Every structure is written in structure tokens, then in C-alpha cells.
């Protein structure tokens, strides 16, 4: 008896969602980074695009490394990430046919408010990172092959530091979890500004270093190859790709603010 | 959504506001997990019973494998389903990745071993108790299965609830195969992960409290139905 009741309930519930699945026809799946989703950017700009085009955009927000992998396997119609070197490689490998600059923001270094490594006095990011390494202050790294992690590793290299030892902690998690952990152990961390500004659990962490040109963080949109994956919704994805760099798209990005602060700066050519 | 520092008041104000986004997330969580438990039960109950009654070479290996799979990490199940359903995978043609259906498939894989292994144990105990009677009735083993399952129904209700607990609590599998897409595949557990990653801990814990309350409610309903049926049917 009770099993029958439970089964009927489950069956009824299951029918509920099949109808919503059928309704969603004109949609694309966008693989993108956690910084764009977690900061609320997509929530702000996608409705404008959907209203204009009638196309729904479903965002799968993961690290840049995983986003590339999803697109490589043909599981996303469109790709918006922030690793210019990786993106150009992706085009060269034939997985995408076009890469366009969409917007930028910057990376910042956050850390304990008493700043034991004195990085707030640094002139350059290389100097700031050397100070962290020399003082062996705890540093929480993404360690997840994301765009931010790749940028961090390039900066260590530029600073001539091999990050290793007890002070350098590779977490293997997304930006938010990394900031949570950094806050918990009062460590320095390298983050994109958007995630930092929208982050609500900073505890004793403060923004300590910003403004070096090397901290530039470019986001690019990729038009995926029709040849590699003919089943993808290329026509719809192309509309999204073009809208991002159009006047309306760029304006929508510029208009997005968190706590009165603009987080992404459109720079399509 | 309202935000403040206390998880309990966050949970309460979320419930009271009847936020439509929250309701759809709750509904999807229930749909996915109940559907997964339904499918897994339909397969695992007869499977577990059959395993209790039939003796064949390698039976012990199957039992050990089922028991071990009860501890299958959700993220591994998710990864397997991801590779299976990915466009580059063998079932890519179906285009099921990042859909609720994919989430159900992953959860079936997680729940099935639990229900099958525990059913096997229950039915085996029951069978050794009633073996003589059943044999004197001249029932074939195939015919014994429904009889034994029906007789063990109250114990099996708990088994099914254990499966439901696994499904409603896991996040690793649905995150990978669902993608946590807002309004499409976002469920309670993936929302909790998302809010945690935003540093919005009161909201994350508030959602956790709501999830716990829901699971408690479903368990209470199942318990009540079980008790009532027990009293009526003796």
C-alpha cells in the first residue's frame, strides 16, 4: 500500500518536470567560469539578451580548465572564459573558429588585515609575491587549473619564485571555497576582483595589493567549431557571441554593479 | 532573497517568503531524488530478493560487490555518467547531459546498490525463517519473490528510505552531470554548495535546514503510513 502511494507521488512529481523540459527549446548551454556566475554578472546580462533574441542561456559555471574540457567534448554550445593563452591554443587546435575580447577586470591579492608580508607597500606584483614567499606567509592557491590559477602560476614564474613549502597551500577548489579557506586560515590569496567584491565571508581578509598592469584579466568569447561538433546549436551560439561584443551587450556588461562598484569593463573591438 | 546573519531566521524567512525560485529548486530536488529511488527500487527489490534465493557460482562476489558499491563516492558515479552521456561518450547522441534526467540516472546508480544489498539481507533472513512453509506450498523460487517482498514490506520501507537519504543528500553526482544550471538543474544540495562558495554562509545553512526539514517530513510520512498499515493488517 504505502509503496504504491509513494510511487504514485513520485510519478506525479516526475511528470511535473517533463513539461518544463519540453518548453525550453530555444536555449544554448554556455560553459563559463565561476567568477562571472558567482558575481551575478550573468544574472544581470542574460535576461537582456533573452528578451532581445528569445534565446535562453543555460550557464554551467566551472573552472576554466573544466570549461575547455566541456567544450572540447562537445557538451556546450558556447564558451566564455578568461585564459587568453589557453583560448588561442583552443582556436589553434581547431576546437573554436573565432575568439573575441569581451571584457576585462583585474586580479587582486587579498590577505590578513595586519599584512605580515607587507605587500601593501609593494610597487609591483612580482615584489608582492616575493615578499609573501620570503616571509613564508601562508598562501592559499586555487590549484585547480582554472584561469585564475594559471594566471597566478605565471606571476610566480615572473617573480622568480617557485611556490612550494608549508606556506604554499594548493586547495584544488573554486574561487569561493578558496576564499572561504583563506579566510579560515588567515592566508594570502590571489583572486579576481569580481569574486572578491561579491564575496560575503571575508572575515579578517582585506584587499592588500592591486593595480599592477600584470594583473589584467581578460575575458574572451569563443565561437566553437561546427566541423568538430556539428550537433551543437551554432546559429544560436553565434547570436550570443555577437551580442556580447555588440553595443547592447557591452553596455549591459558596463551597467552591472555590485555594491556600487563596476566589476567588468567591456573592451570589445 | 533576504540575507542576514542567522541561518535559522534565514531559513524561516525563506520559507515564509515562498520564494518562487526556492520552490522550484525544492520541487526539482524532490522530483529527481524520488524518481531515482522509484526506479532504483523497481530494479533493486527483485534483484536483491533473487540474490537471496538463488545460489550460483560467483554469488558471493556479487554480494561483496553490491555491499562495496554502497560506498561508491557520488562524484565517481557522477563522473561515470558524465563520460557516458557526454557528446564524446557512447550515449552522447541522446543529448542528456546537464538535464534532470542525467541527474536521475546518476542517483539511480548510487541508490540501487543500497536497496539491493539491504533487500538481499532482509529477504535471506526471512527466507530461512519460512523456507519449510514455502517449500511445502510447492512455490517456485520465482513465485516466492513477490511473497517474500510483500512479507518484508515494513523492513523494506526502511531500506527504501535509506536509499532516499543517500539520493537527497548527495551533491557530487548531480553537480557534475547536472551542471547546477539556474532554473534547470539547480537542486537543494548544489544551491548549498553555490551559496557556500559565494561566502553566503547563513543562506547556505538556511537552505540546509530546509532540506533537512523536508527529508524529515518525508521520513515521518513514510513512518506514519508504515505504522498505520501495520496496525490495520496486523
UniProtKB/TrEMBL annotation, chain A:
<dbReference type="InterPro" id="IPR024370">
    <property type="entry name" value="PBP_domain"/>
</dbReference>
<dbReference type="InterPro" id="IPR052738">
    <property type="entry name" value="ABC-Tungstate_binding"/>
</dbReference>
<feature type="domain" description="PBP">
    <location>
        <begin position="29"/>
        <end position="247"/>
    </location>
</feature>
<protein>
    <recommendedName>
        <fullName>PBP domain-containing protein</fullName>
    </recommendedName>
</protein>
<dbReference type="Pfam" id="PF12849">
    <property type="entry name" value="PBP_like_2"/>
</dbReference>
From TrEMBL, chain B:
<dbReference type="InterPro" id="IPR000515">
    <property type="entry name" value="MetI-like"/>
</dbReference>
<dbReference type="GO" id="GO:0016020">
    <property type="term" value="C:membrane"/>
</dbReference>
<feature type="transmembrane region" description="Helical">
    <location>
        <begin position="7"/>
        <end position="28"/>
    </location>
</feature>
<keyword id="KW-0472">Membrane</keyword>
<dbReference type="InterPro" id="IPR049783">
    <property type="entry name" value="ABC_perm_TupB-like"/>
</dbReference>
<dbReference type="GO" id="GO:0055085">
    <property type="term" value="P:transmembrane transport"/>
</dbReference>
<keyword id="KW-1133">Transmembrane helix</keyword>
<keyword id="KW-0812">Transmembrane</keyword>
<feature type="transmembrane region" description="Helical">
    <location>
        <begin position="97"/>
        <end position="118"/>
    </location>
</feature>
<feature type="transmembrane region" description="Helical">
    <location>
        <begin position="61"/>
        <end position="85"/>
    </location>
</feature>
<dbReference type="InterPro" id="IPR035906">
    <property type="entry name" value="MetI-like_sf"/>
</dbReference>
<feature type="transmembrane region" description="Helical">
    <location>
        <begin position="154"/>
        <end position="181"/>
    </location>
</feature>
<feature type="domain" description="ABC transmembrane type-1">
    <location>
        <begin position="26"/>
        <end position="222"/>
    </location>
</feature>
<feature type="transmembrane region" description="Helical">
    <location>
        <begin position="34"/>
        <end position="54"/>
    </location>
</feature>
<protein>
    <recommendedName>
        <fullName>ABC transmembrane type-1 domain-containing protein</fullName>
    </recommendedName>
</protein>
<feature type="transmembrane region" description="Helical">
    <location>
        <begin position="201"/>
        <end position="222"/>
    </location>
</feature>
Amino acid at each position: 500500500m504505502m509503496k504504491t502511494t509513494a510511487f504514485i507521488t513520485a510519478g506525479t512529481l516526475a511528470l511535473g518536470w517533463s513539461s518544463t523540459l519540453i518548453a525550453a527549446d530555444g536555449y544554448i548551454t554556455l560553459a563559463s567560469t565561476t567568477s562571472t556566475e558567482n558575481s551575478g554578472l550573468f544574472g544581470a546580462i542574460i535576461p537582456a539578451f533573452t528578451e532581445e533574441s528569445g534565446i535562453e542561456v543555460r550557464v554551467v559555471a566551472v573552472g576554466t580548465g573544466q570549461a575547455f574540457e566541456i567544450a572540447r567534448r562537445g557538451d556546450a554550445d558556447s564558451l566564455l572564459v578568461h585564459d587568453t593563452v589557453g583560448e588561442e591554443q583552443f582556436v589553434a587546435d581547431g576546437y573554436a573558429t573565432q575568439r573575441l575580447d569581451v571584457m576585462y577586470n583585474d586580479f587582486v591579492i587579498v590577505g590578513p588585515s595586519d599584512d605580515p608580508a607587507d605587500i601593501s607597500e609593494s610597487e609591483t606584483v612580482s615584489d608582492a609575491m616575493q615578499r609573501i614567499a620570503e616571509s613564508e606567509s601562508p598562501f592559499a592557491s586555487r590549484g585547480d587549473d582554472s584561469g585564475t590559477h594559471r594566471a597566478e602560476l605565471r606571476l610566480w614564474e615572473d617573480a622568480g619564485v617557485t611556490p612550494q613549502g608549508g606556506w604554499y597551500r594548493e586547495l584544488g577548489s573554486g574561487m569561493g571555497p578558496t576564499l572561504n579557506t583563506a579566510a579560515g586560515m588567515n592566508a594570502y590569496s590571489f583572486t579576481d576582483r569580481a569574486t572578491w567584491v561579491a564575496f560575503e565571508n571575508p572575515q579578517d581578509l582585506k584587499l592588500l595589493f592591486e593595480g599592477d598592469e600584470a594583473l589584467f584579466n581578460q575575458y574572451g568569447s569563443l565561437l566553437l567549431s561546427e566541423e568538430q561538433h556539428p550537433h551543437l546549436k551554432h546559429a544560436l551560439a553565434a547570436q550570443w557571441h555577437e551580442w556580447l561584443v555588440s553595443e547592447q551587450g557591452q553596455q549591459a556588461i558596463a551597467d552591472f554593479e555590485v555594491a556600487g562598484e563596476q566589476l567588468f569593463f567591456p573592451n570589445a573591438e | 532573497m533576504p540575507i542576514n546573519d542567522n541561518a535559522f531566521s534565514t531559513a524561516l524567512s525563506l520559507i515564509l517568503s515562498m520564494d518562487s525560485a526556492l520552490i522550484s529548486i525544492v520541487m526539482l530536488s524532490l522530483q529527481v531524488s524520488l524518481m531515482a529511488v522509484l526506479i532504483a527500487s523497481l530494479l533493486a527489490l527483485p534483484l536483491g530478493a533473487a540474490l537471496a534465493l538463488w545460489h550460483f557460482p560467483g554469488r558471493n562476489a556479487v554480494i561483496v560487490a553490491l555491499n562495496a558499491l554502497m560506498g561508491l563516492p557520488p562524484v565517481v558515479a557522477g563522473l561515470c555518467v558524465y563520460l557516458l552521456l557526454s557528446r564524446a561518450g557512447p550515449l552522447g547522441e541522446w543529448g542528456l547531459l546537464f538535464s534532470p534526467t542525467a541527474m536521475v540516472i546518476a542517483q539511480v546508480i548510487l541508490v540501487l546498490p543500497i536497496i539491493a544489498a539491504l533487500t538481499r539481507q532482509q529477504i535471506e533472513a526471512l527466507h530461512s525463517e519460512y523456507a519449510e512453509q514455502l517449500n511445502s506450498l510447492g512455490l517456485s523460487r520465482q513465485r516466492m519473490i513477490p511473497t517474500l517482498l510483500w512479507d518484508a514490506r515494513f523492513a523494506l520501507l526502511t531500506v527504501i528510505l535509506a536509499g532516499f537519504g543517500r539520493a537527497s543528500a548527495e551533491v557530487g553526482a548531480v553537480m557534475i552531470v547536472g551542471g547546477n544550471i539556474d532554473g534547470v538543474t539547480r537542486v537543494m544540495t548544489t544551491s548549498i554548495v553555490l551559496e557556500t562558495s559565494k561566502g553566503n554562509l547563513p543562506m547556505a545553512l538556511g537552505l540546509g535546514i530546509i532540506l533537512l526539514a523536508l527529508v524529515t517530513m518525508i521520513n515521518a510520512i513514510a513512518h506514519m503510513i508504515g505504522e498505520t498499515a501495520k496496525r490495520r493488517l496486523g
